[in-house]
């Protein structure tokens, strides 16, 4: 069997990039797997557009098409395809989040949502896989859809030595909070900065917030830095940028909590990273986060009181904190460990007649 996995971009240390790499690894047991991406930043080579056209002209081949961004070339490829097609839908961020920060991002999100509707309408009979049940709400026209969590490489982080991290955490006197994810308006890092400011005033306790992730729009990054300056939080808000897995492991294992006020997610991989590494989580209660996190006592509404109260309960109530860490670990093992995801992926493709 021959497989082609296609997406507009293929980026390392990225949720969709990891999903593509995971699919590639799993499907290699069944045959030849190729990648087609016009923005490929990995060491895995992509085939050319001409080669992709040749591939999709053979009815025996299988195209796995990842959709998360507006990609006109990809849509043209789908229209010309004569092979079997499987979609993986990762959600498109609503354009309203970018209105004040980036005209081009707003336009691309708007075009991306329109493209989602067209693809769902024109390819409604094909199999669609989604990261979450929440993502399926965008696919009302699709007849065959299944939820399969994205592949990841979190299991490889066990190779890092946590001993020094535990010592660092025990010696530190301030509360360390982290957020992992691109600096983007829908992730609402500005709300985290405001929440931290309110919590510091209320609790009179040293705290730091580490924002780990690359900037998505320069204007939003400038807004975050200006807000930090206005609130006189320069000494406790740290813009870390993108880091490798070893450094990310360090931040998770030395943090007192992973905190999120993100207002829109299609899945939220950092939730399961935190659960795997036993980092407590305080997060805004939105559908995809609630679905991913499972059972938790630390899902909150968007207000300063609930954030501060959750932080106090997490820091001071060891029994409650440990119970939630146990819930998180069980949630990860039952739903999101790598063998479970691979088993579900292969089983679904087999039952749908894709793998034979």
| CATH class division of the largest domain | Alpha Beta
The fraction of residues assigned to DSSP E strands is 15-25%
Global Rg = 21 Å
User: What's the order of the H and E elements?
Assistant: EEHEEHEHEHEEHEHEHEHEHEHEHHH
Helix/strand/pairing category: alpha/beta
Would you report the number of β strands? Answer: 14
Number of helices: 13
CATH superfamily label of the largest domain: Glycogen Phosphorylase B
CATH names the topology of the largest domain as Rossmann fold
CATH architecture of the largest domain: 3-Layer(aba) Sandwich
Strand order of the largest sheet: 3-1-5-6-7-8
Keywords:
single chain; 356 residues; alpha/beta; Rossmann fold; 2 domains
Describe the structure.
With 356 residues, the protein is α/β, with parallel strands linked by helices. The longest helix is centred in the first third of the chain and has 20 residues, at 103-122. The protein has 2 domains: 2-151, Rossmann fold (3-Layer(aba) Sandwich); 154-335, Rossmann fold (3-Layer(aba) Sandwich), CATH 3.40.50. It is built from 13 helices and 14 strands. The radius of gyration is 21 Å and the shape is globular.
């Amino acid at each position: 069997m021959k497989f082609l996995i296609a997406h507009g971009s293929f980026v390392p240390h990225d949720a969709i990039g990891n999903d593509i790499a995971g699919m590639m690894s799993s499907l290699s047991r069944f045959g030849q797997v190729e990648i087609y991406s016009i923005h490929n930043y990995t060491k895995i080579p992509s085939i050319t557009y001409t080669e992709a056209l040749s591939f999709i002209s053979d009815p025996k081949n299988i195209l796995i098409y990842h959709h998360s961004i507006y990609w006109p070339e990809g849509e043209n490829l789908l229209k010309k395809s004569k092979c079997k097609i499987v979609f993986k839908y990762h959600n498109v961020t609503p354009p309203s989040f970018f209105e004040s920060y980036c005209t081009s991002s707003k336009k691309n999100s708007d075009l991306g949502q329109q493209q989602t509707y067209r693809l769902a309408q024109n390819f409604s009979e094909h199999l669609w896989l989604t990261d979450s049940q929440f993502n399926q709400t965008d696919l009302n026209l699709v007849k065959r859809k299944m939820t399969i969590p994205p592949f990841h490489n979190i299991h490889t982080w066990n190779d890092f030595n946590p001993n020094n991290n535990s010592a660092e955490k025990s010696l530190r006197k301030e509360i360390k909070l982290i957020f992992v994810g691109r600096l983007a308006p829908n992730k609402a890092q500005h709300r985290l900065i405001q929440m931290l400011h309110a919590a510091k005033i209320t609790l009179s306790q040293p705290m730091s917030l580490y924002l780990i992730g690359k900037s998505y729009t320069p204007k939003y990054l400038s807004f975050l830095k200006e807000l930090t300056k206005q609130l006189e939080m320069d000494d406790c808000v740290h813009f870390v940028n993108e880091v490798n897995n070893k450094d990310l492991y360090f931040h998770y294992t030395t943090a007192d909590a992973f905190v999120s006020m993100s207002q829109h997610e299609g899945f939220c991989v950092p939730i399961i990273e935190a659960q795997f590494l036993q980092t407590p989580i305080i997060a805004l209660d939105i559908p995809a986060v609630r679905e991913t996190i499972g059972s938790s006592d630390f899902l909150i509404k968007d207000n300063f009181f609930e954030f501060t109260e959750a932080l106090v309960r997490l820091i001071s109530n060891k029994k409650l904190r440990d119970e939630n860490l146990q819930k998180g670990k069980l949630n990860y093992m039952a739903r999101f460990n790598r063998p479970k995801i691979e088993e579900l992926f292969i089983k679904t493709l087999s039952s749908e007649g894709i793998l034979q």
